[in-house]
Amino acid sequence: MTITTKLITVVGATGRQGSSVVSSLLQNPNFRVRAITRTPSSPKARHLASLGAEVVKADGFNTEELSLAFAGSWGAFVNTNSEDPELLAKGLNDEDLGRNIISTAAACGVQHLVYSSGLPVFELSNGAISIPGLDLKSKVYTHATTLPFRTTTPIIAGWFMENLLEREYADLFGGFPLIPDEEGYLTYKTPLWGGKEDFPWISITDDFGDLVHGVFLNPGRWNRRVVQGVGQVSGSEGVSKVFGEVTGKKTRYIPLLDPQDMNTQGEFWREQERDVFVFAQSRDGEYFCNGPTEVETAGELKRAAVRAKGGEGREELMTVREFMEREFGGKL
């Protein structure tokens, strides 16, 4: 008996989210994966090809290239980089890019779309808060719901555990967990999140791809359902404590009572991160705006994906402690 595999095209395939999605889907014999990139010769693109992905060149503003990329696709995962310097150079923004990609996918007959979305912060705050990196993605998803897809699913990622590995993020948050302060402490300085301090964490590398995979296994179930991309809920004070336990380093947590005290240095990306806290506080910590932050949905999707991969991999979501043990244990 011939088994017909379904082709899923991944836009943003060499990025952190996209590569996680490609890696997960390729482990399911019922899916074929087409990885879209502007530079097929890059090391990241060649790595995806070595895993079994069909790597195709396409620019997000080139409709002809996109049409070839989406041809024959049953599903598509789309993620765009709102901070892409090429957008600014062209006088365009993430909404322009996302709308063109999504519209082309629909025109090519893609049935099921999973979109890495954002929240309509400006709308929900009645204009009090604007976070373009989230607002523009929300507008793209709204546009997607007007197109002839059979299903559209927005997934909104929580805070990347991988950010803990970036010096720029450490500098934004007082130096934690990479840069000791003048007293020798790895000091974690963050504004309060609001409510019960249910801060959402996710390991993009370990879990995000499986969540998207889980949606594609039953897209009708998740049609127009906001998926919280969360692997663990843990307040900042607890994260600081766990890091100290894992590494034996001197750590401390200092809450910033005013988000304006964050070390933004007048840089746009830092100001957006600050405003994420401002928005979360306005919602009493319910950042995703569809109820309390939770991991049950992600857990369900993760388990479904692991089963579809023949039981390969762990069914449990990565915890902050486990991530730190792997990335920092014995290293510092």
TrEMBL record:
Q: Does the keyword NADP apply?
A: yes
Q: Name one GO cellular component term.
A: nucleus
Report the superkingdom from the record.
Answer: Eukaryota
What residue stretches are annotated with the NmrA-like domain? 5-254
State one Pfam family annotation.
Answer: NmrA
Q: Which Gene3D superfamilies match?
A: NAD(P)-binding Rossmann-like Domain (3.40.50.720), UDP-galactose 4-epimerase, domain 1 (3.90.25.10)
Annotated keywords: NADP, Oxidoreductase
Which molecular function GO terms apply here? oxidoreductase activity
Keyword hit for Protein biosynthesis: no
Q: Which InterPro entries match?
A: NAD(P)-bd_dom_sf, NmrA-like, NmrA-like_oxidored
Q: Which family does it belong to?
A: Belongs to the NmrA-type oxidoreductase family.
Q: Indicate what this protein is called per its UniProt record.
A: NAD(P)-binding protein
- Organism expressing this protein natively: Aspergillus ibericus CBS 121593
